[in-house]
Each structure stands twice: as C-alpha cells, then as structure tokens.
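Appendix B, Record 12. Input sequence as logged:
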Amino acid sequence: MTTQRISLLILGLILFFIYEIPIESIFQKEEITTTCLHKGLLGFGCPGCGMTRAIHSFLHFNFKAAANFNFAIFGLFPLLISQSLYQLSGNKKMKLIQKNTLLLFLFLLSSQYILRIISNQ
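Logged structural output:
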C-alpha cells in the first residue's frame, strides 16, 4: 500500500469518527475546558479553535453551525479533496488547483484569526 493511500485511509477514518461522535457528549458548554494554549494565554481562540466542532457540523450538513464554530471549514474540505486528487493523479493541473485551495484555506484561517482579535477588544 502506498503512502498516499495510507494517508487517505487515515483521513477517512478520522472524518468517520468525527462524524459518528455525538457532538453533545463531547462539547457540552458547561464542561468545556480549553486545551488551547493560545486561548489560555490570550483569552481568545487561535485560528484552529472550533475546527473539530465545525468539521462535525459540516459533515452533518449543518453549515450555519459549522461557520459559527470556524468558517475556515469552507476552505478545508476543498483543500482535502484537491490534495487527495493531486496525490492520486500527480497531474500538474491538479497541483495548481491544490495550491489555490491551500491559499483559500490559509486566507480563511487568517480572516478567522483577525476577526477573533477584533471581537476580543
């Protein structure tokens, strides 16, 4: 089995487990304790905070909740798809698409972070 196929298998398993976990059992508001060092030190979330809940909501087609948790989720799935297609095909056109989706994801993550900084003040 090639490295690309193993990576895709692991990614698929991670997404499956996130999909299957009842979100209420993990993310009950009164029991949330942060493990994010950034949030613990600065008082507001890092660009990746909320991404697991956003993935869970996105996989359950609850796009509004996904956007509320972390709107960079809308760049993550195109990135994962384009990266997977590039790894499987090796096509140069797919490499360009993969780079563009990476830039989109980084732009959304940066925007998420800037908005968190602004709303914290």
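Residues 3-120 form one domain.
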